[in-house]
Design a protein that fits this description.
Length: 430
């Protein structure tokens, strides 16, 4: 489905972004390993987290959905999963595939994980290598690099693993396998990636020791405790409205109940440094996670900046929208050390360079990022989403400040993470 978007005069109002995708995945997966019934409120009803929910059902977990859309997971402990009678389809969700791989590495049965066309092209060697070192048999296409993955686990042992690239999904896969391993397992990463797994597992009784960028997990002496959680708002979804309110003149938008986990909010730090007008109000804590409300007013003037190094894992999902913001900043913005973006739902570096060029942005592709010279006058164009939800939403925000009407092809892919995106965008323009 194509979407047509015209220039916005202003954005005004209050919104609540969808529940956090990363936390929704982990809540339903981890609750399935617990002993007892867990209640999950405010789950993200989007395709990716539902892939995790349906996968756990295939592994024999009794998951109930109430009339009020609460999820009740009746977990029976770490060793309660059963061999699936079919291939597990992870859809478009790399999180589902990588986290499940860690769990399945510790199971004595055989299982196969696959996904859609996009997921079957995403690199899995980064989890195959450590899980194989632990003693699991993990086989994939193209020299074990690509899905589908066939996994036969069982008697695995703990390892000390230095990750070449910071990745919350890879880190989580290894830590989850560590729950089933003999001996302790440790993971060290070059930069700190999002830490929802560590926070949630610790709250459920896992023995975790964190020392800087090194995390050590011990095999469980007792079962994981059940979980009662209300999922906070997703910062990565809020990012598109933070950008929109910053870029569209005479705008003021309040975004309620956003997860402000420090490993996720790199974009906000960068934007404030560039001159954006963002206030955090009503800070509070819930289930170990920091929440708050964000008040964003349009920016008078943004300045270019250099974005590199240890902040990159804290804004990796926000790269597409950051490119749009940088197009309106005075001077040069360089984003580097982000080569992993070439292996997301699309090659996001190439995709954003190609599509923003169509809209008149002075953007140049680097091996590991982009260079953007601004401010640029954005013009309407026909652009392509690459069936990547974050590309579609970033180009939609660019369309709000473009002269004319922009056509975004295959815009329905936003349903992967944010089904209400276009409704909220229209509501703020009334």
């Amino acid at each position: 489905m194509d979407r047509f978007i015209k220039k916005a005069k202003q954005l005004r109002g209050q919104i609540v972004t969808p529940p956090d995708k990363s936390i929704s995945h982990r809540a339903v997966i981890f609750a399935s390993l617990a002993n007892g019934s867990s209640v999950i409120k405010n789950f993200l009803w989007a395709k990716d987290p539902l892939s995790s929910l349906n996968s756990m059902r295939l592994l024999g977990v009794d998951i109930e959905i109430t009339e009020t859309k609460e999820i009740v997971v009746h977990g029976k402990g770490l060793k309660s999963l059963i061999e699936p009678d079919n291939v597990i389809d992870c859809g478009n969700s790399g999180t589902t595939m990588r986290l499940l791989s860690g769990i399945l590495a510790g199971q004595s049965f055989f299982s196969v994980l696959t996904g859609d066309d996009s997921l079957r092209q995403r690199p899995m060697k980064r989890i195959v290598t450590p899980l194989s070192l632990m003693g699991a048999t993990v086989i994939g296409r193209d020299g074990n690099r690509l899905p589908p993955l066939a996994i036969k686990g069982g008697s695995i042992k703990g390892i000390d693993y230095d990750m070449p690239i910071a990745s919350a999904q890879v880190k989580s896969a290894i830590l989850l396998a560590g729950l089933f391993a003999q001996g302790k397992t440790s993971v060290s990463e070059p930069y700190k990636s999002r830490d929802h797994t560590e926070k949630m597992l610790k709250s459920m009784g896992a023995e975790l020791e964190i020392d800087g960028n090194r995390i050590e997990i011990s095999p469980l002496r007792e079962e994981l405790k059940s979980l009662d959680i209300s999922i906070p708002g997703d910062f990565s979804s809020a990012a598109f409205f933070i950008a929109a309110a910053s870029l569209v003149k005479d705008s003021e938008v309040l975004i309620k109940d956003v997860c402000l986990n420090n490993t996720r909010t790199g974009l906000m730090d960068v934007l404030i440094n560039m001159g954006a007008n963002i206030s955090v109000i009503n800070k509070r804590e819930q289930a170990g996670e920091l929440l708050g409300d964000l008040l964003i007013r349009s920016s008078e003037k943004l300045k270019g900046t250099l974005i590199e190094g240890n902040i990159i894992p804290r804004l990796i999902d926000e790269f597409p929208i950051l490119c749009v913001i940088a197009s309106q900043a005075e001077g040069v913005t360089v984003i580097k050390d982000a080569k992993d973006l070439r292996a997301k739902e699309s090659d996001r570096i190439k995709a954003m360079t190609t599509e923003l060029n169509k809209m008149g942005v002075d953007i140049h592709e680097l091996d590991d990022g982009v260079e953007i010279k601004g401010p640029c006058k954005i013009k309407a164009a026909e652009v392509y989403s690459y069936k990547d939800h974050r590309i579609a939403m970033a180009l939609s925000i660019a369309a709000l400040i473009a002269d004319g009407e922009t056509k975004i092809k295959d815009a329905e892919c936003v349903d992967i993470s944010f089904p209400e995106f276009y409704n909220l965008l229209e509501m703020l323009q009334h």
